[in-house]
């Protein structure tokens, strides 16, 4: 019988082997065609949301590889969002979409949220993989992060900021919500097939309002969660090409 400790040891060995292979992967391989639409073609409208381009900072560009691509939009809607657990006002129905296209070097092109958020003062309070079902296409897995940050307002009163985000990776034919699975697929393609997928790292994020009644915070969280999933389901067919296989 395989114990939990043995499973952990095997997993660590696989990860260590994978990381060591990064240094011997072929460089300069040709890219497969993108699995998402071109950056300039990211949709202006996603359901009831209308998007406007956001600037990618020089610091962000300097952090990643020179051949990394970016697209970022802020989507807003005028009405309340009404979900199964409640509704949220227009001031909290905004969704930020970020798409990063990897370059030849996967080590410098994509820095997943678990690395970036803590440096910005966010605590990842909950992390899980969830299935997103897209009617008529199938389903894919995304990573869901529930993030919190302590702050003080102008009067010096302490409070908690909340943010919910989803991310996933889209290659030429495959998609995954796992950074480690994406890395494994990338190494396999380079070593066995002689090509490099140009992965799209997609993130959608929304601010979570603080409930006036603390006992209702779970309902507020669930409503923002439902809104983000609706956005993702509506966005995906507009941006992800049919070449990408969903389950």
Overall SS class: alpha+beta
Helix content: 25-40%
Rg value = 19 Å
Oligomeric composition of the shown chains: single chain
Low-confidence stretches: 14-26
What fraction of residues sit in β-strands?
Answer: 25-35%
Main sheet characteristics = 9 strands, antiparallel
Number of helices: 6
The domain tally reads: 1
Q: Give the SSE string.
A: HEEHEEEEHHEEEEHEH
CA(first)-CA(last) distance = 31 Å
Give me the count of strands: 11
> What is the average of the pLDDT values?
84
- The shape is globular
List the helices and strands and how they pair.
Elements: H1 4-21, E1 45-46, E2 49-53, H2 58-63, E3 69-76, E4 81-82, E5 87-88, E6 95-101, H3 106-109, H4 113-119, E7 123-134, E8 138-152, E9 158-170, E10 175-176, H5 179-193, E11 200-208, H6 217-239
Antiparallel strand pairs: 1-2, 2-3, 3-6, 4-5, 6-11, 7-8, 8-9, 9-10, 9-11
Question: What is this structure, in a nutshell?
Answer:
The protein contains six helices and eleven strands.
Describe the protein:
The chain contains six helices and eleven strands. With 247 residues, the chain is an alpha+beta fold. The protein has one domain. Strands 1, 2, 3, 6, 7, 8, 9, 10 and 11 form a nine-stranded antiparallel β-sheet that branches. The chain has a two-stranded antiparallel sheet with strand order 4-5. It is globular, with a radius of gyration of 19 Å.
Keywords for this entry:
247 residues; alpha+beta; nine-stranded antiparallel beta sheet; two-stranded antiparallel sheet; 6 helices; 11 strands
